[in-house]
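User: Could you go from structure to sequence for me? I need the amino acid at each position, not a summary. Structure tokens:
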């Protein structure tokens, strides 16, 4: 029921949820397992010597060879798929995360695969390293999967994925803190999503219903921070602060004074809220303050820079939220 509502809603408002579906166009289906097995046998024969070596360095070298071969393969698309799959596997085993990601991205661009499942398997197989940069990159990839689940309102899966991310970074206080904040954010989203389901259903029957548009617009903008879609719906909602800001955003010209007015509106709205909503308002205020800052100088410039500093001090780097 939950996903049906989300899909209906995406059709109504043309949200980014539909984009992954369109992105599948032009891709090849993943080869049948039997064809993959036959192709793998041939590949292992060609690279018999490389496959026989068991050291980490040898696996790393093999992953690079397989990836290079896959990138050059233009005719045998079954072999290309298997080469990419093997390159991902050996890259993960040897701690070569850059190679593994490149192989995944090439496969995802060319074939119809369950990209979330494949990437989750890749991240789960990747061993811990001593490199802070690599570990942060792996963490960011985990959080990317969390964001995909949030995008389609699959909050149980989002919570499961962020749990895996937390397990990965259990020894890193900074990244663990970001993951914990994300967990809290997911729970707030899930609770609010359950509360506003009737608005989604009402929009399916009547896309012009003001109350439903306002409720959905508030959720998408202030909770999920999908500003473009959220503001479009909020502008069709009942009179109130959010609708007023949405109207101002859509009519705001590229003039610093007017842009400052929009940003100030979000700043004012932030002062009357707390927690997640306050952060959302401050984020949006910062977005408009930065737009207003372009080409500005003098006291107005100083004022906006001060506002941005205050916002940054309060919300910091909000990767986890």
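Assistant: Here is the amino acid at each position, in order:
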């Amino acid at each position: 029921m939950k996903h049906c509502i989300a899909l209906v809603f995406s059709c109504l408002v043309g949200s980014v949820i539909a984009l992954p579906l369109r992105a599948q166009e032009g891709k090849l289906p993943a080869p049948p397992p039997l064809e993959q097995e036959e192709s793998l046998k041939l590949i292992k024969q060609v690279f018999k010597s490389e496959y026989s070596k068991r050291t980490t360095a040898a696996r790393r070298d093999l992953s690079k060879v397989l990836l290079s071969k896959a990138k050059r393969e233009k005719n045998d698309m079954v072999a290309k798929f298997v080469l990419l799959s093997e390159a991902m596997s050996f890259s993960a085993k040897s701690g070569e995360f850059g190679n593994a990601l490149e192989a995944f991205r090439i496969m995802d661009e060319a074939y119809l695969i369950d990209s979330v499942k494949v990437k989750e398997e890749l991240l789960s197989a990747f061993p811990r390293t001593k490199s802070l940069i690599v570990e942060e990159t792996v963490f960011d990839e985990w959080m990317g999967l969390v964001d995909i689940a949030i995008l389609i309102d699959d909050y149980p899966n989002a919570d499961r994925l962020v749990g895996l991310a937390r397990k990965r970074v259990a020894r890193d206080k900074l990244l663990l803190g970001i993951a914990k904040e994300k967990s809290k954010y997911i729970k707030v989203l899930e609770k609010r999503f359950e509360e506003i389901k009737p608005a989604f259903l009402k929009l399916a029957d009547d896309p012009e219903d003001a109350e439903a548009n306002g409720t959905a617009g508030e959720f998408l903008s202030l909770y999920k921070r999908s500003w473009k879609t959220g503001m479009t719906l909020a502008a069709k909602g009942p009179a109130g602060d959010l609708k007023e800001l949405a109207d101002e955003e859509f009519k705001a010209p590229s003039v610093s004074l007017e842009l400052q007015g929009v940003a100030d509106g979000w700043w004012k709205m932030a002062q009357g809220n707390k927690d997640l909503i306050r952060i959302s308002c401050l984020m949006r205020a910062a977005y408009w303050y930065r737009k207003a800052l372009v080409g500005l100088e003098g006291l107005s410039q100083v004022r906006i820079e001060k506002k941005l500093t205050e916002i940054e001090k309060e919300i910091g780097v909000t990767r986890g939220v």
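One structural detail worth keeping in mind: The CA atoms of residues 131 and 137 lie 10 Å apart.
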